[in-house]
Every structure is written in C-alpha cells, then in structure tokens.
C-alpha cells in the first residue's frame, strides 16, 4: 500500500496530458518538494518496468505516465496509428538547428542549411514539434522546440542534448575540404579565361 | 534590316549588335562599362537614317535592350547573396563557403543524431487527451452557460451610443442679427422721418447689431435709398432718405 501522497500524485499524473514538474505537483497537493520527491520514489517502484502496464517517466521537464512498450502492438491495433510519423532529412536538419540554436528565425535556418526552410518549418509547426517563440529584432518569427519534441526524443530537458561540437569536422577534414574548394575555384576561374 | 546586323560604334565596343550581345553574355564585354544609352541613341540614329519605322525590328530591339538594362541593373545593385560572394576574392569566398559548409555539417550530424534518438526512444505512448474540464483552473470553453449576462454587452455598447449632451454655447456670441433685418429697420425709421441720426437707429443695440447696421446702410446706399453725412471722424452720422426709392424695394 502506498502513501496517500503517492496515490494522489498517481491520480494527478493519470489525469494530466502534460508532464508535471515537482513544483506543479507540490503546488497542487500542498506538500513540500521533499515529500513529493519521496512519493515519486515510491511511485517509481510501483511503476517499475514489469510491474504494471504503465511506466513512470521523467520527460519534458517533469513526470508523466506512459504505456509500457509491451503494449505498443496492441495500442497500435486499438488506436490505428503509429506513435509518430518519420521525419524527412530536411525536417530533422531543421529540427536540429531549432533545437540547438533556439529561438531561431527561418532566414537563419535557411542560411545554415543553404536552402529554403519554409516547407520543413511548416511541417514541424504542424506536428507541434516546434512553435513560434516571439520575434527577432528585425521582426522575423522565432521558433523554439515544444514539450512534445522532448517527449518524442525522450529528453528530460534541452540540456540532455549532446554538445554539437563533437560532430564538427577535424582540422584535417576541414583542411581537405578547403583544398578541394580552392582547387574547384581555380578550375572555374581558369575556365572563364579561355 | 535585322537588329542583329546593326553596326554600333561605342566606347567599349565596335561591331554588329549580335556580336555585342554574345560578348556581354560571355562576360567578355563588361556590361557595367557599356553605356546602354549610347546603344539606344545609335539605334535612334539608325531609325532616322532609314526614315521609316520597321515595327518588328524595333520591337525586337526594345526587348533586347530591356533585357540588357535588367541585367545591368542587377550587376550594379548589390545585395544578392551571389553577388556578395562574387565580390569576394577567391580565397575569401572559399573561406566563407568553407565556414558555411562546416556549420551546415554540424547540424546535419545533429540531425542524424536526432534521427537515431527517435528510433532509440522507447516505444511508449503518452496521454494525449487534454485535462478534463473540472481539473482546469480556468477555461472559457467549459464555462457554464450564463455566467455572463448578455445584457452587459448591451450596456457596454450603449455607453458609446448615447448622444452626448448639447454643449452650452450661451457664452459664445452668436450672430442673431441679419443685414435684411437691419435694412427693414432702417426703412421703417426713414418712413417716419426723412432724416435720422445713426445713433438713434442703433440705440440700445449690441456691437454686432451696430456693425450689421453699417452693412445695411452701405447696402441701402448702393441701392440709392439713402445717403449720409458725417461732419468729422467719430462725429454724428446723419442718415437721409433719398427722394426716389429704388424700384421693387420691399416695404
């Protein structure tokens, strides 16, 4: 038998479609943060994998209940659709830029990608993975990721995203790229002189 | 004669028009140094020399010169990204391009990572239904009917529709006296006496009435009904009826 507070939190998590932070749970129940943390530990044990059809998950800045992957096939059969459709490379690239540089404007996304970002931005907005987040000083709409983004990518917060510098080209690779560019440039200027 | 065969003798080019076009398009003649006005003047000279207007050839020329003008204006006006790159030295352009490629590469890799993340994320589902209404702190969608009285809207607009009270203008002098009235007044007095003093005519009247009476005097003088004398400035004005009243004067 769990404590009254743990059972109350379970009820709140059942009712809410958004992740609930410790602060929100504390405010709703009138309990202190520490009591909430203890009750959450209780719930984590109660909802440990294999115990129930639901899991207690920490995602998108709070706690939420989720279906056990065990039930995924049955859930798909019941609800008739997959959890989320695949994202195209263009959408993923756009999403990556928004995730790391948010809030960021569409012209900036286009500048980095070197191609117009209108279509992927529209799709990501449509799928609620990004949302408008104010305006830049030049009046362009700025975009930021949503809590659904964190849920879909199973992130507790944006800080869970790894440092993108790890994917940067090494000096050697960059040097090689530079040489190839210069060679191509010479080839081109040579061609126009003929 | 075809436009293409027209000979031009310009600062930067001398020869037929079609060769000029070819050289411009191959960037061997710099369009920025080519005076298009000179080309147009050359063509007009040619038209004058011919003495007749070949509509088809002229149309062709206008189309070509318009295209050249557009091309030239694009070259002259900075701002397009391509032009920015063209203005850079090859080394600088390569560095700029390299920086962009490296930046793009970073986020392309991040995109690959996110793509993996999405497949690695556990196959869990979250509640998607919104919070039940009774749990929401406040939501107008679920407000019980009639919590606001529709009449309050009426009241709100009624305040705007009320006619504002008439302003009290009693302190403002309003011209209530007309020249016609004063003319009638003067005629009335002149019927009783052939001669009268202006002061008598306006005794007890306010300044506006005095002023309007002067206009009435002028009007009646114009019509030949009266005349007046004033011995000295600010002195008494004596008004006299003329012997012959104007025809059609009203009683």
Structure description:
- The complex is a heterodimer of chains A (194) and B (251).
- Chain A has helices spanning 4-15, 22-29, 33-46, 72-79, 89-101, 106-113, 118-126, 147-152, 171-193; strands at residues 54-59, 62-67, 104-105, 130-135, 141-145.
- Chain A has 194 residues and is an alpha+beta fold.
- Chain A has 2 domains: 4-78, Arc Repressor Mutant, subunit A (Orthogonal Bundle), CATH 1.10.10; 89-167, Arc Repressor Mutant, subunit A (Orthogonal Bundle).
- In chain A, the strands form 2 sheets. In chain A, strands 3-5-4 form a 3-stranded antiparallel β-sheet. A two-stranded antiparallel sheet of chain A has the order 1-2.
- In chain A, α1 packs across α3 (33-46), α2 (22-29) packs across α3 and α5 crosses α7.
- Chain A is elongated.
- The relative contact order of chain A is 0.09.
- Chain B has 251 residues and is mostly helical.
- Chain B folds into 3 domains: 3-77, no CATH class; 81-123; 179-241, Structural maintenance of chromosome 1. Chain E (Arc Repressor Mutant, subunit A, Orthogonal Bundle), CATH 1.10.10.
- Chain B has 9 helices and 5 strands; from the N terminus they run ββαααααααβααββ.
- Chain B has helices at 17-25, 36-50, 55-76, 81-87, 90-120, 151-161, 179-192, 198-201, 207-222, and strands spanning 7-9, 14-16, 195-197, 226-230, 237-241.
- In chain B, a hairpin with a 4-residue loop joins β1 and β2.
- In chain B, α2 (36-50) packs antiparallel against α3.
- The interface between A and B is large, with 50 and 40 residues.
């Amino acid at each position: 038998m769990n404590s009254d507070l743990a059972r109350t939190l379970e009820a709140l998590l059942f009712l809410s479609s958004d992740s609930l932070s410790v602060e929100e749970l504390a405010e709703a129940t009138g309990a202190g943060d520490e009591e909430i943390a203890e009750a959450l530990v209780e719930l984590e044990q109660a909802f440990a994998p294999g115990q129930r059809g639901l899991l207690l998950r920490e995602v998108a800045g709070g706690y939420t209940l989720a279906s056990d992957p065990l039930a995924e096939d049955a859930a798909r059969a019941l609800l008739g659709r997959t959890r989320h459709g695949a994202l195209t490379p263009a959408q993923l690239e756009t999403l990556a830029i928004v995730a790391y540089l948010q809030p960021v404007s569409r012209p900036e996304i286009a500048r980095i990608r070197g191609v117009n970002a209108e279509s992927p931005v529209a799709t990501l907005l449509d799928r609620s993975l990004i949302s408008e987040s104010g305006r830049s000083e030049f009046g362009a709409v700025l975009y930021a990721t949503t809590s659904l983004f964190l849920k879909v990518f199973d992130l507790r917060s944006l800080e869970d995203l790894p440092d993108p510098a790890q994917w940067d080209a090494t000096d050697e690779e960059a040097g090689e790229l530079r040489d190839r560019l210069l060679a191509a440039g010479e080839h081109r200027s040579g061609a126009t002189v003929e | 004669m075809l436009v293409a065969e027209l000979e031009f003798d310009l600062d930067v080019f001398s020869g037929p028009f079609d060769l000029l076009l070819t050289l411009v398009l191959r960037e061997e003649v710099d369009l920025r140094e080519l005076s298009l006005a000179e080309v147009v003047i050359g063509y007009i000279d040619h038209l004058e020399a011919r003495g007749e207007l070949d509509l088809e050839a002229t149309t062709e020329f206008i189309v070509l010169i318009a295209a050249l003008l557009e091309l030239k204006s694009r070259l002259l006006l900075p701002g397009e990204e391509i032009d920015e790159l063209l203005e850079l030295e090859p080394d600088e352009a390569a560095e700029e391009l390299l920086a962009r490629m490296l930046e793009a590469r970073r986020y392309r890799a991040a995109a690959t990572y996110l793509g993996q993340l999405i497949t690695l994320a556990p196959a869990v589902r979250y509640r998607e239904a919104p919070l039940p209404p009774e749990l929401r702190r406040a939501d107008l969608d679920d407000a019980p009917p009639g919590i606001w009285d529709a009449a309050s809207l009426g009241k709100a607009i009624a305040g705007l529709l009320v006619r504002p009270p008439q302003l009290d203008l009693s302190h403002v002098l309003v011209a209530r006296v007309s020249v016609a009235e004063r003319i009638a007044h003067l005629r009335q007095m002149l019927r009783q006496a052939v001669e009268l003093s202006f002061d008598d005519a306006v005794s007890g009247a306010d300044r506006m009435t005095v002023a309007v009476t002067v206009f009435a005097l002028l009007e009646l003088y114009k019509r030949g009904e009266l005349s007046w004398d004033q011995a000295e400035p600010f002195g008494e004005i004596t008004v006299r009826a003329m012997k012959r009243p104007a025809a059609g004067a009203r009683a």
